[in-house]
Amino acid sequence: MDDGRLAILPRTATRDARLLVAARSLRSFGDGLTSVLLPAWLLALGHSAFEVGVLSTATLAGSAALTLGVGLMAHRTSPRRVLLASCALMLATGLGFATASDFAVLLGVAFVGTLNPSAGDVSVFLPTEQALLVDTVAPAERTALFARYNLCAALASALGALAAGAPARIASATGADLADVARFAFAGYGLLAVAAALLYRQLGVGAPGPQRASPPRVALSHSRAIVLRLTALFSLDSFGGGFVVQSILVLWLLRRYGLSLEAAGAVMSATALLAALSQLASAPLARRIGLIRTMAFTHLPANGFLVLAAFAPGPAGAIACLLLRSALSQMDVPARQAYVMSVVRPEERAAAASVTNVPRSLATAASPALSGALLAASSFGWPLVAGGLLKIAYDLLLLAGFRHRPAPEERAK
Question: CATH no. for residue 99?
Answer without folding.
Answer: 1.20.1250.20
